[in-house]
Amino acid sequence: MARIQRSVQSGFSRITEALGDPAREAIVSALADGKAMPAGELACAAGISPQSASAHLQKLVDARILSVWSQGRFRYYRIADENVASLIESLVDLAVKAEHLDRKRARLPEPLRQSRRCYGHLAGQLGVSLSNALIRRRLVAVSGRTGHVTEPGFAWCRSEAIEFKPVREPHLRLCNDWTERVPHLAGPFPNAILARLVETRCVAPLQVPRALRLTQKGRAFFARLGAEVPF
């Protein structure tokens, strides 16, 4: 019986154990927009000592939730990849359901609901609107949970000076939006779009972590795309 049990175990308990601590949850949340941060800043974000942060960070790295790279004498941590970012977003979605969605949404800062970073792509009302417009105009084609950029989509990229040079498919995937309750698009192509929006100041960061402000240039971009801006 024990042999059968071991054969069906996938090892996800190691990941859930690594995430199942308030301090580590705070660390992962601080990195959810795709940026890299040193241990000292993450310790402040989690409200713990640098010594304690070191142990928590190592556990997250060992579970392959975070990756670490060195620059001189500094070590920087970030979410390991898009798959981990998608997992985090799904866990947030599940947690919101468990803690009564309406009450949680009422406490959520409005800018965060309107437009925010989710790892390297756009989320919130604006992210969903962008995704819907790309699909409606057939600039992308989605099948199941993944998709690719179409020929009209590549032409649109050239017209908007969006640098997207795919290495392989899929170019994008569906990511559950925990505030809007519908999927938005994630992956290399949506990442390239957000990078262009940031570069051209179509969106700008706010003091609310991860939240983005849509500028007048941004409204013009969404108007050209034919995407509704719901705020």
SSE series: HHHEHHEEHHHEEHEEHEEHEEH
Q: Main sheet, how many strands, which sense, barrel?
A: 4 strands, antiparallel
> Can you give the mean pLDDT?
87
Give the neighbour order of strands across the main sheet.
6-7-8-9
Give the helix/strand class. alpha+beta
Question: Which radius of gyration do the C-alpha atoms yield?
Answer: 19 Å
Q: Which consecutive residue ranges, at least 5 long each, have pLDDT under 50?
A: none
Distance between the termini: 57 Å
Q: Tell me, what's the shape?
A: globular
Put simply, the count of helices is: 12
The amount of helix comes to 40-55%
Strand content: 15-25%
Query: How many β strands by DSSP?
Result: 11
- Number of spatially distinct domains: 2
Outline the structure in words.
With 231 residues, the chain is an alpha+beta fold. It has helices at 2-8, 12-19, 22-30, 39-46, 50-62, 82-98, 101-107, 110-114, 124-136, 151-159, 188-199, 216-225; strands at residues 37-38, 66-71, 74-79, 116-118, 121-123, 140-143, 146-149, 172-176, 183-186, 203-205, 212-214. The strands form four sheets. Strands 6-7-8-9 form a four-stranded antiparallel beta sheet. It has a three-stranded antiparallel beta sheet with strand order 1-3-2. β6 and β7 (146-149) form a beta hairpin. The longest helix has 17 residues, at 82-98. It is globular and about 50 Å long.
